[in-house]
């Protein structure tokens, strides 16, 4: 997830035009997500993804990133957290509209031993729900060199301290720094 140095994932009105990405980051992210087989989204982010990625790689002006991510998106299993989409029947997509802890833990258990990650993309509201229910096992963050001053925070509704263990860090030439943490469950 991209965030500003002061901890916001979007501007006050959901703006993300401040996010700094380039081919170096796209290549790095592409390698990691290619190892995952499940993508988790909130409804709004899922609908944005569905509006773009299924055909992005087919466009005449498609970039290398668009082609690669479009292929990955077409084969990855999608999990959407949404109360309004609960009756939707979508191919290779699971809608979770209730009993979030049990449903997420079922998905996690189906991945045990397989080494595959369930990757959460964007979706601040879904992220807040998962944080509050202690269902996030790690944070893969891309800190952008900008201070927004206000906006949608990444960490909202935190009840208790959460200890994190730094797994990797990587600076990119455009000033973005990747921080990859696991959650320390004592």
Automatic annotation (TrEMBL):
It comes from the Bacteria. It comes from Prolixibacter bellariivorans. Gene3D superfamilies: Dihydrofolate Reductase, subunit A (3.40.430.10). Pfam families: RibD_C (PF01872). SUPFAM superfamilies: Dihydrofolate reductase-like. InterPro entries: DHFR-like_dom_sf, RibDG_C, Riboflavin_Biosynth_HTPR. One of its GO terms (biological process) is riboflavin biosynthetic process. GO terms for molecular function: 5-amino-6-(5-phosphoribosylamino)uracil reductase activity. This is Riboflavin biosynthesis protein RibD. Residues 3-176 form the Bacterial bifunctional deaminase-reductase C-terminal domain.
């Amino acid at each position: 997830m991209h965030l500003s140095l002061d901890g916001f994932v979007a501007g006050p009105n959901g703006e993300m035009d401040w996010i700094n990405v380039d081919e170096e980051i796209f290549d790095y992210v592409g390698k990691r997500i290619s190892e995952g087989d499940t993508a988790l989204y909130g409804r709004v982010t899922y609908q944005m993804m569905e509006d773009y990625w299924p055909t992005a790689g087919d466009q005449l002006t498609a970039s290398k990133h668009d082609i690669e991510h479009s292929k990955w998106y077409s084969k990855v299993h999608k999990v959407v957290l949404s109360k309004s989409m609960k009756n939707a029947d979508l191919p290779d997509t699971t809608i979770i509209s209730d009993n979030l802890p049990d449903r997420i833990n079922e998905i996690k258990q189906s991945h045990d031993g397989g080494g595959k990650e369930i990757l959460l993309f964007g979706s601040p509201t879904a992220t807040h729900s998962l944080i509050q229910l202690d269902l996030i096992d790690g944070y893969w963050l891309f800190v952008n060199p900008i201070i927004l001053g206000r906006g949608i925070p990444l960490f909202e509704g935190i009840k208790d301290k959460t200890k994190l263990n730094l797994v990797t860090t990587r600076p990119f030439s455009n000033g973005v720094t990747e921080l990859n943490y696991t959650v320390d469950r004592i």
